[in-house]
From TrEMBL:
It is found in: Membrane. One of its GO terms (biological process) is phospholipid translocation. The keyword Transmembrane applies. Keywords: Glycoprotein, Membrane, Transmembrane, Transmembrane helix. This is Cell cycle control protein.
Length: 370
């Protein structure tokens, strides 16, 4: 008996406020005034933020030029895979009516390219991209090894289908010889991608580090020769390669390609005038009925020219206000009905009380007589 009592006492929780569930608690008492005030304030906040975001997005200057049909001859040439070694260029002149002040960014935009396919996203080797094991290509099918069994670096369907058009922006100064607009190819990636997810093998000579591997089938040059001007922009740390490897969620997307180097005639941005895009057409899109375009755009504190966030806030604020006015109308209607029914109820209660008092007095009187 003593053992059983000791065991039962040992299983008892400590005599503390937490384990005895005696902590002080607060039960929120919701009133009609508090709920209506909360809905009203939320609606004002969402509408205000939505209008500010929409105005900010509208202030962005952007120009987009689709060049798939303009460069139709090059598109037909790229339909035949045997013409991969033939270069095809086209020039697209355009006029910029207003100055694009501040930082200007160049994007390439694809229509109808599904980067979000499950097998496409999985076709990559993270250990290889980290530079730890270049021959780890087990998850890169169908672009894991070449015909002779040599591992591909970088392997996978995403790397093999990299966007490889070359786009050069030229500015016609005073209708004279066009000058090339200085563009920077660095600083276009996410910091986590550049310094965490992608790393080159630990070697001073990348050609030696990538020995024993071969380039992807659709590439014209190996990964360690992507940028001849900047040796630091080669291998898995190439900015264009890192930007492409971040898969898009929708079939229509744009990715950052270059950013304006604000020097010489472009210290304040892109001045108004005549420009032209000189494009080396390499990336085929007509097979899957896609399209390509070039986008020049400025940015604001809220990001790009996407109106989705502003519209989402505005719609949320409008729905919240609609709920506020609906609940207020219902509250006022119920309040009027309550006032209407309270007076008869009070009179009936007084009648019931008087009857009870009479009955009680009669009972006491009879008891006294007895």
């Amino acid at each position: 008996m003593k053992r059983t009592s000791e065991e039962s006492q040992s299983r008892l929780p400590d005599n503390s406020a937490l384990k005895q569930q005696q902590l002080p608690a607060y039960r929120l008492q919701l009133t009609a005034t508090g709920v209506l005030s909360g809905f009203f304030a939320t609606g004002v906040f969402c509408l205000g933020v939505g209008i500010i975001l929409i105005l900010s997005a509208k202030s962005i200057k952007e120009i987009e030029i689709k060049y798939t049909k303009i460069c139709g001859n090059c598109a037909k040439l790229r339909e035949d895979a045997t013409n991969f070694d033939k270069e095809c260029t086209c020039s697209i002149p355009f006029y910029l009516s207003e100055t694009m002040q501040g930082n200007v960014y160049m994007y390439y935009k694809l229509y109808g390219f599904y980067q979000n396919l499950y097998r496409y996203i999985l076709s990559r080797s993270n250990s290889q991209l980290m530079g730890t094991d270049l021959k780890d290509v087990g998850t890169c099918a169908p672009f894991s090894k070449s015909h002779d069994g040599t591992p591909i670096a970088p392997c996978g369907a995403i790397a093999n289908s990299i966007f490889n058009d070359t786009i050069i922006l030229s500015y016609n100064l005073n209708s004279s010889i066009p000058i090339e607009v200085p563009m920077l190819r660095s600083g276009i990636t996410w910091w986590t991608d550049k310094y965490v997810k992608f790393q080159n093998p630990r070697s001073k000579n990348l050609s030696i580090a990538f020995a024993g591997t071969t380039k992807p089938p659709s590439w014209a040059k190996p990964v360690y020769e992507l940028d001849k001007e900047d040796p630091e922009n080669n291998g898995f740390l190439n900015d264009d390669f890192i930007v492409w490897m971040r898969a898009a969620a929708f079939p229509t997307f744009k990715k950052l390609y270059r950013r304006l180097n604000r020097i010489q005639y472009f210290t304040e941005g892109l001045p108004a005038g005549n420009y032209s895009f000189n494009i080396t057409y390499n990336f085929p899109v007509t097979r899957f009925r896609g399209e390509k375009s070039v986008v020049l755009s400025t940015l604001t504190w809220s990001g790009g020219s996407n109106l989705f966030l502003g519209l989402a806030y505005t719609v949320t604020g409008a729905v919240t206000w609609l709920a506020f006015f609906s609940m207020m109308a219902i509250h006022l209607m119920l309040k009027d009905r309550k006032m209407f029914f309270t007076q008869p109820a009070i009179k009936s209660s007084f009648k019931k009380k008087s009857r009870k008092q009479r009955m009680n007095s009669e009972v006491t009187n009879r008891a006294k007589d007895l």
